[in-house]
C-alpha cells in the first residue's frame, strides 16, 4: 500500500521528502550560468590537483559524487583518468557535457541520485566529492559511507571538500537532531575534523585540514570556510 513503510530505504525516502533539497532545486540552480557562484568557474579543487601532482594518487578509475558542471571530473579526464561523474541535476550535467566537449575529453556523466544508482563493487581508485556531502541529510550519512566503501578498491582513496562548521559560505553549526526539529539543512551542514574522522572511521584519515584562500589566477579552487579531507581504504 502506498505510504506504508516496509523497509529502511522506504523510511529514508520518506525522510528525504522533509529534508533533502529536491531535484528541482538543483535543476533550477544551474539555469543561470552567469551567477556569481565560486564553484561555477571551470577550475579544479586545489585538493584534487595537489594529490594528483604529488603522485599520492595515480591515475585509474574515479567516481565523482555530485559533480555539478564537471570541473573536477574534467580535470581528472584531462589527466588520463577514466571518470564516472554523477549528479541529480540534469542542467549541471548538460553544462558539464559542453565543457568536456570544448576540452576534447570524455567523462561518463550519469544523471542519478547517488543513493539510487548502481555502483560496481571495488571498481574505483578514487571517489571524489566537492560540495555534495554537506547537502546529505544525517539519515543518509551511513548510506553515503557505505556507498564510498563499496565503490573503492582496497588501497583506494576518498577526497572530500565540505563546508566547515560556521564557515563564511555556509556550514550550519547544528546537531543532527536539530535538522529534524527544524526540517532543514540550512543550506548545508558544517563539519569539523573530529566529526569527519568519526563519520569516515572505517577509512584511514590521511589528511584533514581547513582550506586557505587561493587566488583563482592560479587555476585552482580553494576558499577559506571549507574543510578538505583525504582518506584511504585499507
Ligand atoms: C554545491 S554543488 C557542487 C557541484 C560540484 N561538485 C562542484 O564543486 O562544482 C552540490 C552538487 O551535489 C548535487 N547533489 C546533491 N544531492 C545529490 C544526490 N543525492 N545525488 C546526486 N547529486 C546530488 C547537486 O545537484 C549539486 O550539483
Could you give a short description of this structure?
This protein has 234 residues and is of the alpha/beta class. The protein has helices at residues 8-19, 23-29, 46-53, 71-78, 90-103, 141-151, 176-182, 193-199, and strands at 61-65, 82-87, 108-111, 124-130, 152-163, 204-210, 226-232.
What does this structure look like?
By secondary structure, the chain is α/β, with parallel strands linked by helices. It has one domain: Vaccinia Virus protein VP39 (Rossmann fold, 3-Layer(aba) Sandwich), CATH 3.40.50.150. 32% of the residues lie in helices and 21% in strands. It has helices spanning 8-19, 23-29, 46-53, 71-78, 90-103, 141-151, 176-182, 193-199; strands at 61-65, 82-87, 108-111, 124-130, 152-163, 204-210, 226-232. The chain has a seven-stranded mixed β-sheet, sandwiched between helices. β1 (61-65), α4 (71-78) and β2 (82-87) form a beta-alpha-beta unit. The protein is globular. The model has no long low-confidence stretch (mean pLDDT 95). Bound molecules: S-adenosylmethionine. Residues 26, 39, 66-68, 71, 86-89, 92, 113-115, 130-132, 135 line the site of S-adenosylmethionine. S-adenosylmethionine binds next to β2.
Amino acid at each position: 500500500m502506498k505510504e506504508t513503510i516496509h523497509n529502511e530505504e522506504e523510511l529514508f525516502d520518506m525522510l528525504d521528502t522533509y529534508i533533502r533539497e529536491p531535484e528541482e532545486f538543483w535543476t533550477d540552480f544551474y539555469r543561470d550560468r552567469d551567477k556569481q557562484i565560486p564553484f561555477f568557474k571551470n577550475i579544479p579543487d586545489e585538493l584534487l590537483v595537489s594529490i594528483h601532482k604529488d603522485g599520492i594518487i595515480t591515475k585509474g578509475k574515479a567516481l565523482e559524487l555530485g559533480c555539478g558542471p564537471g570541473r573536477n571530473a574534467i580535470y581528472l579526464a584531462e589527466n588520463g583518468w577514466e571518470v564516472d561523474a554523477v549528479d541529480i541535476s540534469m542542467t549541471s550535467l548538460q553544462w558539464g557535457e559542453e565543457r568536456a566537449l570544448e576540452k576534447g575529453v570524455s567523462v561518463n556523466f550519469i544523471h542519478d541520485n547517488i543513493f539510487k544508482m548502481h555502483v560496481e563493487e571495488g571498481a574505483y581508485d578514487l571517489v571524489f566529492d566537492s560540495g555534495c556531502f554537506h547537502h546529505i541529510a544525517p539519515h543518509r550519512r551511513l548510506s553515503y559511507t557505505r556507498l564510498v566503501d563499496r565503490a573503492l578498491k582496497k588501497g583506494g582513496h576518498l577526497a572530500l571538500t565540505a563546508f566547515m562548521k560556521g564557515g563564511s559560505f555556509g556550514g550550519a553549526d547544528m546537531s543532527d537532531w536539530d535538522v529534524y526539529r527544524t526540517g532543514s539543512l540550512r543550506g548545508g551542514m558544517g563539519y569539523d575534523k573530529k566529526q569527519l574522522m568519526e563519520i569516515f572511521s572505517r577509512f584511514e584519515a590521511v589528511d584533514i585540514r581547513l582550506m586557505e584562500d587561493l587566488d583563482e589566477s592560479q587555476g585552482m579552487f580553494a576558499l577559506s570556510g571549507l574543510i578538505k579531507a583525504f582518506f584511504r581504504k585499507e
